[in-house]
Write a structure and sequence with these properties.
Elements: H1 2-16, H2 21-38, E1 46-51, E2 54-57, H3 58-83
Antiparallel strand pairs: 1-2
Helix pairs in contact: 1-2, 1-3, 2-3
Length: 84
């Protein structure tokens, strides 16, 4: 149940992060990291083996996409802050 709530928060934060600048980017990054920690019940098959017993799963992709979007939003917010 915790994983489902965190995933819902991740989707919500991804949708709203652009409106809230740096605060939205930081929130999205934090929830993305939380997702990577709690996504065990929803991981799915291993897509890429990193080391024996460790790999990248389908569930990990949501967290990685969230981190990528957070970096993009944070960079955009930082640049906007510098120009004003």
């Amino acid at each position: 149940m915790v994983a489902g709530v965190v995933l819902a928060g991740l989707v919500l934060a991804a949708g709203l992060s652009g409106r809230y600048g740096m605060a939205g980017a930081v929130t999205l990054a934090a929830i993305s990291v939380a997702w990577l920690v709690v996504n065990g019940p929803m991981e799915g098959p291993v897509l890429v083996v990193v080391a024996r017993g460790h790999g990248l799963t389908g569930g990990d992709l949501a967290g990685l996409a969230g981190l990528g979007l957070a970096m993009f939003q944070g960079t955009r917010a930082h640049r906007a802050r510098q120009t004003t």
